[in-house]
Amino acid sequence: MTARAVLTAAFLTAAGAVQAQIAGARYDDPTTRYGHAVLGDAVEYGALVLRMQTGPARRIVLPHSRVFEDIAPRLVDLDGDGGPEVIVVESDLQIGARLAVYDENGFVAATPFIGQRHRWLAPIGAADLDADGAVEITYVDRPHLAKILRVWRFRNGALTEVATREGLTNHKIGDPFIQGRIAICAGRPTVLTANSDWTRVIGTTLADGNLSSRELAPYKGPDGFDRIAGCD
Questions:
Q1: Is 223 helix (H, G, I), strand (E, B) or coil?
Q2: Which residues contact 132 (CB under 8 A, 6 or more apart)?
Q3: What are the pLDDT digits (tens) for 107-126?
Q4: DSSP string across 115-147
Q5: How is residue 15 annotated by DSSP?
Q6: Are residues 31 and 44 in contact, defined by beta-carbon separation less than 8 angstroms?
Q7: Is 225 helix (H, G, I), strand (E, B) or coil?
Q8: Is 168 helix (H, G, I), strand (E, B) or coil?
Q9: From CA 197, how far away is CA 202, in angstroms rounded?
Q10: CB–CB of 228/218 below 8 Å?
Q11: Any idea of the CA torsion for 190, 191, 195, 201, to the nearest 10 degrees?
Q12: pLDDT (0 to 100) of residue 20
């Protein structure tokens, strides 16, 4: 049974009822069935719990072949309706990680799985990077190996890849946290990451479907991403 089917079966609402909005989210059902330990231990999660503004919490349970390989769910209003969607990292025991979006009704959209066991992606954030009215979601694909920044646009309930850039990263293997963020630098939404050898902080912007990167500061540790001159 799919996650959406599980959720629908468990939380049928009366016809015509106003749909409750998500107020918070957390992972549950810790499990060691994947055993990757990219975030410092072998514990991942088998369920996503959505806390609603009204009514009982809603629970999404992954099939046994997948886990949430992530730090915490991220709440972002991706479709502009005033209520948040939830961005997560799911990993399949055979074909690795993908970025997925859920809402109060369950699964909405996802990127393709990377395609190999124990291959992961590290989310950065979501914002309208190019002022086109749609929100872009950013992550680093295989931050310890490929080090590719990927930008996906969320529109009409679907994800479409917009642009990529190599030589950028935001996670060191074994760290229980992800570095970088999206900031406003010189008036523009800017994706902050490290370069591939962790010596510089890099700012990357999106325009006309293309990514442009520039060095912003020496890399001085995780807290340095919050203290970049010219970035809020």
A1: helix
A2: none
A3: 999 999 999 999 999 999 99
A4: SSTT--EEEEEEE-TTSSSSEEEEEEESTTTT-
A5: T
A6: yes
A7: helix
A8: strand
A9: 12
A10: no
A11: 50
A12: 87
Buried residues in 99-116 as b, exposed as e (16+ CB within 10 A): bbbbbbebbbbbbebbee
The two three-digit tokens of residue 120, written as one number: 């992961």
Distance separating alpha carbons of residues 232 and 186, to the nearest angstrom: 9
Q: What is the pTM (predicted TM-score) of this model? A: 0.91
Measured distance CA(118)–CA(115) in Å, rounded: 9
In this prediction, residue 8 carries a pLDDT of 36
Strand partners of residue 74: 87
Question: Residue 49 region, left (φ>0) first, then alpha (ψ -120 to 50), else beta?
Answer: beta
Q: How many residues does the chain have?
A: 232
Q: Which residue has the tokens 């999106």?
A: 206
Report residue 205: phi and psi, to 5°.
-120, 160
DSSP 3-state of 24: strand
Tens digits of residue pLDDT in 170-229: 999 999 999 999 999 999 999 999 999 999 999 999 999 999 999 999 999 999 999 999
Assigned token pair, 9: 């079966």
Give the C-alpha distances (Å, rounded to integers) separating 18 from 9, 40, 55, 157, 167. 18, 42, 11, 20, 46
Inform me whether the pLDDT recorded for 11 exceeds 90.
no
Structure token pair of residue 21: 């909005």
